[in-house]
Amino acid sequence: MRDNTEQSRFELPVDGEIVFADYRRRDRNLAILYVYAPPKLRGTGAAGRLMAEIAAHARAESLKIVPLCSYAGAWLRRHAEHRDLVG
Asked: Which Pfam families has this protein been placed in (predicted)?
């Protein structure tokens, strides 16, 4: 995963495509605004892998995730091991 700070998004290259999550940082919070997977990657778990990397990044940086995107919120609800990151 790459943190593209210029565009405020995390990017994960998969099979020549880019899965990404737009974000906004404020204090110790990381708001996930939108998660996007190209049509050919939908249903492959690519967006879930990106969210797992974002969760690991947030944990390493002691950040709380604010899931403004419905996909990010649903992913965090499904993965109890990361619920402590929800801010």
From this structure: Acetyltransf_CG
